[in-house]
């Protein structure tokens, strides 16, 4: 059985796409999402790089064919549709083997990319920094090892490309495994160098030290909108999947005058290719070492529980024990899109669970409660203390400035009173080294 959904309009200026959505039956439910939700997501992914979906097809698959994924009857039915619609490209919402991809392209006489290829294409379009482009290229090379013909040239001719997939007018080039292997080795060395630079930056922040609050979540959960609200920055935030790819760091001041570094990270997605996670691990290091991890969840979506689990799975693949990690706050975002009953339920859950916060990144509703939860977590890892430092003891004063976050000073003739946020370990070191006792500890 094949079900078909037509788009209402076709923009002649865009590349047109036919989406094939397999509904694979394996004797048990294979996804927390309905097949319609899976189809909606792949449409959004296609839209993210300006592909115009002229038609989408849901194909029931009882048994995956080794050489072509789909059975002969379904392949022939789609071939007729391809001849009728003449799409620029077919997007197949499943991971295909190189043999399956080549056979389907040959049979349908149309360029085809699978889910992994489409995600890589989006990442290639979004990456702005050198680090991001290196990581995307590494993931693409890993993907291309067994696909010797470049898959994306048809798109590159239209919009210029990301640099590694060929520019306008470039002819098809077959890459052998030796060349790809050499390029992968070089890319890994360059990314390792970037990682070391990032570690130096993190160590520098630890010397300040400003606690790091990392925003994570499914793509399009509202991380960048919330980041912009809190920081006043103008990070690209749009209703598109993977609107943010390169990590962005900004310093903000909490209501209690404590400074923290807020980190906006790449959005996650279901079935994210393993080699893509590995390539972006250097970027995600910021999350691994964060003092607070804020998991943004778009609770206005019907499949938000599935999205939540996808993020948990990826974080656990990065060795974060989600259920046992006290740094994690779950933010129920976009409550302004909920009906009255669901909105009240979200606030009720947040009231009785310290690890949950309900808010709207767009309107700011619930932001004060969010700050309270951040402050509470940080209070377990950073103490606010006040000391009276003798005028002649400039070394002790300098030590506090170097190892703590000074939030207030008052100079008197006989002493300088300094209020500082400091890690417990550094607090002990300061007391032992300079023999000062705090006036108060919050």
Outline the structure in words:
With 442 residues, this protein is an alpha/beta fold. The chain folds into 4 domains: 2-110, 3-Layer(aba) Sandwich (Rossmann fold), CATH 3.40.50.11060; 124-190, no CATH class; 210-379, P-loop containing nucleotide triphosphate hydrolases (Rossmann fold), CATH 3.40.50; 383-441, Alpha-Beta Plaits (2-Layer Sandwich), CATH 3.30.70. Helix content is 42%, strand content 20%. It contains 15 helices and 15 strands. It has helices at residues 35-47, 72-85, 98-108, 115-126, 130-144, 153-159, 177-207, 223-231, 274-279, 281-288, 304-317, 340-352, 367-379, 394-403, 424-434; strands at 2-6, 15-24, 51-61, 89-92, 112-114, 212-217, 248-253, 259-264, 292-298, 328-333, 356-358, 383-389, 405-411, 416-422, 440-441. The chain has a 6-stranded mixed beta sheet, with helices on both faces. The radius of gyration is 26 Å and the shape is elongated. It starts with a strand and ends with a strand. Mean pLDDT is 80; it is low at 7-12 and 149-173.
């Amino acid at each position: 059985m094949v079900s078909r959904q037509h788009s209402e309009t076709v923009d002649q200026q865009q590349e047109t796409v036919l989406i094939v959505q397999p509904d694979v039956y394996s004797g048990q439910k294979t996804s927390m999402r309905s097949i319609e939700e899976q189809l909606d997501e792949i449409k959004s992914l296609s839209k993210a790089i300006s592909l115009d979906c002229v038609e989408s097809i849901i194909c029931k698959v009882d048994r995956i064919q080794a050489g072509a994924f789909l059975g002969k009857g379904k392949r022939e039915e789609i071939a007729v549709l391809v001849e009728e619609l003449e799409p620029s490209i077919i997007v197949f919402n499943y991971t295909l083997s190189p043999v399956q991809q080549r056979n389907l392209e040959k049979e349908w006489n149309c360029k085809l990319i699978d889910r992994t290829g489409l995600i890589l294409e989006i990442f290639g379009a979004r990456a702005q920094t050198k680090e991001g482009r290196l990581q995307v290229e590494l993931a693409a090379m890993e993907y291309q090892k067994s696909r010797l013909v470049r898959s994306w040239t048809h798109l590159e001719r239209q919009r210029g490309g990301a640099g590694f997939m060929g520019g306008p007018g470039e002819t098809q080039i077959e890459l052998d495994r030796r060349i790809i292997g050499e390029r992968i080795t070089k890319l890994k060395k360059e990314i390792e160098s970037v990682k070391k630079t990032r570690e130096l930056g993190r160590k520098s922040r630890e010397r300040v030290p400003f606690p790091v609050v990392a925003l994570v979540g499914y793509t399009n959960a509202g991380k960048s909108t919330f980041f912009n609200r809190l920081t006043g920055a103008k990070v690209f935030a749009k209703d598109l999947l993977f609107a943010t790819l390169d990590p962005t760091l900004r310093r903000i001041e909490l209501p209690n005058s404590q400074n923290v570094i807020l980190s906006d990270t790449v959005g996650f997605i279901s079935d994210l290719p393993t080699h893509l996670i590995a390539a972006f691990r250097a970027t995600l290091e910021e999350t691994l070492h964060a003092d607070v991890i804020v998991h943004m969840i778009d609770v206005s979506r019907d499949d938000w529980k599935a999205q939540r689990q996808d993020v948990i799975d990826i974080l656990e693949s990065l060795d974060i024990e989600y259920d046992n990690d006290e740094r994690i706050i779950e933010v129920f975002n976009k409550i302004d899109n909920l009906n009255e009953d669901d909105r009240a339920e979200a606030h009720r859950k947040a009231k009785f669970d310290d690890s949950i916060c309900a808010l709207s990144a767009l309107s700011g509703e619930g932001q004060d409660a969010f700050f309270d939860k951040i402050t509470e977590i940080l209070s377990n890892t950073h103490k606010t203390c006040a000391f009276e430092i003798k005028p002649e003891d400039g070394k002790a004063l300098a030590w506090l400035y170097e190892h703590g976050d000074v939030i207030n000073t008052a100079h008197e003739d006989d002493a300088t009173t300094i209020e500082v946020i400091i890690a417990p370990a550094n607090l002990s070191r300061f007391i032992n080294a300079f023999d000062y006792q705090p006036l108060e500890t919050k």
